[in-house]
Amino acid sequence: MLKQTLDRLYAEFNAPDTAADPIHLVRRYAAADDREAVGFIAASLAFGRVTSVLQSIARVEAIMGPSPAAYIREFDFRREAKRFAAVGHRWIRGRDLVALLWLMRQMIDRCGSIERFFVATRANPDADMRSMLESFSSRALALDVRSAGVRYFFPRPSAGSACKRLNLFLRWMVRRDRLDLGVWTDVAPSQLIIPLDTHVIRVGRCLRLTRYSTPGWRMAEDITACLRRFDASDPVKYDFALCHLGMMYPGSSALEARLGRFKITDRRSSPARAPARARTPPPSRRPSVRR
């Protein structure tokens, strides 16, 4: 059964030492407000090769010092601009990071935390994630923006975006297990949408978790809806396992062989395609990528 397979994969990956991941940098902080602050920055930069992602997050952490939340509460746009001049991540420049931190300060000034800003205009506690993300990004970009590049960090479902990095941040903050931090209390795990990246897409297609061929918000909702059938209260708990399984097995035949061990069946209960090889190929040694 597919549920048994997914639960087995979840148990296999539900430990801090199973794979390199930005969440481990966030976990080092004990205070909830520090975890929220670093988590938002780390998730915002979670695109590209994992080595580069971790290095970029560490550079920002070094500037913020031992209490990132306190740093953001006192953040001064002009004063800090020079310190970030040489800091960047792929196409993100230092001025974009400064603008991001400035928006975070404005959220905290207005509502006390990013969580409170996120839920501030929620119509009801059971509002769907699409409407919450739409409102969050729109309200964030209605603040004093300072840099056009910061808009990259606040995508909207209405524009077709899967909002991967925002959904990743929400997974870290809302869920609680051996990996996720459970910092937030005003959003339920059942409301989360899977952070859709290339690896989740590949594994999702292999398992026939989606009917869509084009990545975007509809595919993220579709995969989440399928996973909700196996755990309605916490469908996104499978994300870390699905993502890192895809990282470990970048080739289609290798992935199918790995999944073949569990006798995967698709969402319509038809037999899965037979593995391409009888023997499971070794996992890739390349650094993990979440993009």
Structure commentary:
- The chain has 291 residues and is mainly α.
- It is 49% helix and 1% strand.
- The chain has one domain (2-290).
- It has a two-stranded antiparallel ribbon with strand order 1-2.
- α1 crosses α13 and α11 crosses α13.
- The radius of gyration is 19 Å and the shape is globular.
- The two termini are 29 Å apart.
Give keywords.
14 helices; globular; two-stranded antiparallel sheet; mainly alpha; 291 residues
Element order: H for helix, E for strand: HHHEHHHHHHHHHHHE
Q: What is the tally of helical segments? A: 14
Largest sheet: 2 strands, antiparallel
Helix content: 40-55%
Mean pLDDT score, rounded? 88
* Stretches with pLDDT under 50, minimum 5 residues: 263-287
Number of domains: 1
Question: How much strand content do the residues show?
Answer: under 5%
Radius of gyration: 19 Å
Q: What is the tally of beta strands?
A: 2
Based on secondary structure, the structural category is: mainly alpha
Largest sheet strand order:
1-2
**Amino-to-carboxy terminus distance:** 29 Å
* Rough outline: globular
